[in-house]
Design goal:
The protein is 20% helix and 31% strand. The protein is α+β, with helices and mostly antiparallel strands and 380 residues long. Among the domains are: 134 residues, 2-Layer Sandwich (Gyrase A, domain 2); 80 residues, Aminomethyltransferase beta-barrel domains (Elongation Factor Tu (Ef-tu), domain 3, Beta Barrel). It has a six-stranded mixed beta sheet. A hairpin with an 8-residue loop joins strand 11 and strand 12. The two termini are 42 Å apart.
């Protein structure tokens, strides 16, 4: 931290606890966040895969969207004008992955939307928080009340021991992947979803700011629960094949190019009951039927050298223009090899295709691979 100006950065309610736990703090999305703890990124990653990791994700945006009419269908339909997913069919107590699209069919942010009975609960990325809130206020205020939640922390508990740890505080064992619930506890009402960003089973828990430190301490006191920083969070999500907004998807990439069109339900596609009606629908619906010129794929370097973001990709070992680019790359501690994701020209997107990455002036072979790089363990 010495020599780095962090004075204009925000801090989460767990900041002092991070310091007490020996975290190394770095700037991230306008916040001072823990990149790692004394255990180190590699061990934190393995610990999350084998036991349980606790992450502070309080920098993310929490928003309640409440229909003025009292009828949730009105909020769901209004929200559907901003995203290419079906929210009308989202059942009470369930959440769904979505993305805000722009008029060009690019992705403004990816987000989670939950049906909590009489309102929608929305979680957005930290880096896009202000823009997303403004977007919702500008487009939903006629039909909905937009309440930005500023008095609650958000923590993620991930890994095979997550269920046992959290279940000792609140009855969460019966929840399935992408279920949501509001459950009372010694730490007040907890807003819980069985979800995460690691490829592991786990939970994301919103808790009142004044209870967050006590809640975190209670979890960290349990066998197998350790604090995990942003470094391991990144390698965990990359092994799981999950996008980082701003790196792997952005305002210029469409959901189809980004290979997240699985999130677009049939009802919003051509021929569906509520087809289109979202920003960029002309491009996105066309791409769903006719394909795209480029596609996000998994990439496994054939050697040990990692292929990091902005590495250019080529069809051949020499000559020719680049046909793609790496957007995320790191060493995968669980798979014990380097891994990347990025965009390639669609004719090279088939699994098993050999491509070449330019690393320090040399073209090194890599193989297009399926993601996730390691099977996910969500509780279906």
């Amino acid at each position: 931290m010495k020599g780095r100006d962090m004075s204009d950065l925000q801090r989460t309610g767990l900041y002092d606890l991070h310091l007490e736990l020996g975290a190394r703090m770095v700037p991230f999305a306008g916040y001072e966040m823990p990149v790692q703890y004394p255990m180190g990124v590699m061990k934190e990653h393995i610990h999350t895969r084998t036991q349980a990791g606790l992450f502070d994700v309080s920098h993310m945006g929490q928003v309640i969207v409440r229909p003025k009419s009292g009828d949730l269908a009105n909020a769901a339909l209004a929200f559907e004008a901003l995203v290419p997913v079906s929210l009308l069919a989202l059942k009470d107590g369930r959440q769904r992955y979505a993305m805000f699209t722009n008029e060009d069919g690019g992705i403004m942010d990816d987000l989670m939307v939950a049906n909590r009975g009489d309102h929608l609960f929305v979680v957005v990325n930290a880096a896009c928080k202000e823009a997303d809130i403004a977007h919702m206020q500008a487009n939903l205020s006629d039909t909905c009340e937009i309440e930005v939640i500023t008095d609650r922390a958000l923590l993620a508990l991930q890994g095979p021991l997550a269920e046992a740890a959290l279940n000792s505080i609140a009855p969460v064992a019966e929840m399935k992947f992408m279920d949501v619930a509001v459950i009372g506890s010694d730490f007040g009402d907890m807003w819980i979803s069985r979800s995460g960003y690691t490829g592991e089973d786990g939970y994301e828990v919103s808790v009142a700011n004044d209870q967050a430190v006590a809640f975190a301490r209670a979890l960290l006191a349990m066998d197998g629960v350790m604090p995990i920083g942003l470094g391991a969070r990144d390698s965990l999500r990359l092994e799981a094949g999950l996008c980082l907004y701003g790196n792997d998807i952005d305002a210029t990439t469409s959901p189809v190019e980004g290979a997240i069109e699985w999130a677009i339900q049939k009802v919003r596609r051509n021929g569906g009951e509520r087809a289109g009606g979202f920003p960029g629908a002309v491009r996105i619906l066309n791409e769903l039927e006719n394909g795209t010129a480029k596609r996000r794929v998994g990439i496994l370097p054939n050697g040990r050298a990692p292929m990091r973001a902005h590495t250019m990709l080529f069809a051949n070992a020499d000559g020719g223009e680049p046909m793609g680019e790496v957007t995320s790359g790191a060493f995968g501690p669980t798979i014990e090899r380097p891994m990347s994701m990025g965009y390639v020209a669609t004719e090279f997107a088939e699994t098993g295709t050999t491509i070449y990455a330019e690393v320090r002036g040399k073209r090194l072979p890599a193989t297009v691979a399926d993601m996730p790089f390691r099977p996910s363990t969500y509780k279906r």
